[in-house]
Amino acid sequence: MPPRSKPVAVVTGGNRGIGLEICRQLARKGCQVILTARDAAMGRVAARSLAATGLDVSARVLDVSDPASIRRFSRVFAKAPGRIDILVNNAGIYLDGGYDAAGNPGPPATETTLAACEETMRTNLFGPMLLMQAFVPLMVGQGHGRVVNVSSGSGQLATMGRGELSYRLSKTAMNALTRVFAAETKDKGVLVNAMCPGWVKTDMGGPHAKRSVAEGADTAVWLATLPAKGPTGGFFRDRQPIPW
Ligand SMILES: NC(=O)c1ccc[n+]([C@@H]2O[C@H](COP(=O)([O-])OP(=O)(O)OC[C@H]3O[C@@H](n4cnc5c(N)ncnc54)[C@H](OP(=O)(O)O)[C@@H]3O)[C@@H](O)[C@H]2O)c1
After folding, report:
1. Is 204's C-beta closer than 6 angstroms to any atom of ligand 1?
2. Strand 235-237 and strand 240-241: pairing?
3. Distance (Å, rounded) from C-alpha 147 to C-alpha 48?
4. Residue 198 domain-assigned (yes or no)
5. What is the CATH number of the domain that holds 47?
């Protein structure tokens, strides 16, 4: 069943970058947006900046790398608003060194530390996994839900290249996570998809990136608001399917 009142959307890493823009665009589309951030003050400031323009956005604390924080968030969320229509797993980290102006990634895989891999996996993979485990059953119970995993072309096996090992591993695994949850929710009203925002001008993307946050957020917002017959278990960029 589609939501009877305003759809409730939860966005992780909503305090800046692509996540903040996803919050803005979802709220403009009439959602009640719960902007989550690991830093309470930063989340509050970001949510207020959107609410000041008349949008329905409020802030909650959520550190996706911390299972206890996810448990706390889910517990409080179950009381109010208690319903979730959209989960956007946007929060992410990139610990592999930046890109140069030509778009080439930094140090080779031989230099990647286990610590960097573990930290990246905790944030980019296990956080989304635990959130999906917490919220997808609610969506199935409602008979309606949309999950958008903000992945990356860096996780595509079809075009896998050198470097950025921990980030690539985390995003390839996030794509697998997407496929598994999509298979398990098939025909239950829940659509689970992954997307790549492209190379976006944010703190992570850096100053050489080609895309604006508005362009980067567009496909995530489209997937978050898909109609009932929309795709599930897909990987998209610019609203078009791309190879895994
Ligand atoms: N920018 C690009 O070119 C690009 C390309 C492909 C994919 N992506 C993906 O797009 C998503 C957003 O990236 P972005 O460019 O907007 O990055 P960004 O500007 O660096 O923002 C990252 C966001 O994630 C949050 N975050 C990091 N760790 C967190 C944690 N443990 N708990 C909660 N929030 C956490 C950050 O919060 P703090 O402010 O507290 O650090 C921040 O809000 C990421 O998943 C990224 O992998 C980006």
Report:
1. yes
2. antiparallel
3. 25
4. yes
5. 3.40.50.720
pTM: 0.97
Residues with Cβ within 8 Å of 243's Cβ and at least 6 positions away in sequence, in order, are 156, 158, 159, 235
* First-last CA distance in the chain: 30
Note the pLDDT tens digit of each residue in 202-219: 999 999 999 999 999 999
Q: Which residues are registered as beta bridge partners of 190?
A: 145
- Banded pLDDT at 174 (limits 50, 70, 90): very high
Give the mean pLDDT of the chain: 95
The count of domains in the chain is: 1
Residue 228 within a domain = yes
81-95 tens-digit pLDDT: 999 999 999 999 999
CA of 203 to the centre of ligand 1 (A): 8
User: Which residues, in sequence order, are bridge partners of residue 32?
Assistant: 8
Spatial contact of 195 and 219, defined as CB atoms under 8 Å apart: yes
Dist CA 153 CA 216 (whole Å): 13
93 pocket-lining for ligand 1 (C-beta < 6 Å): yes
pLDDT at 158 over 70: yes
Domain membership of residue 1 (yes or no) is no
- 3 located within any domain: no
Tokens found for residue 184: 């398990």
Nearest alpha carbon, ligand 1 atom 45: 92
Residue 27 has pLDDT above 60, yes or no: yes
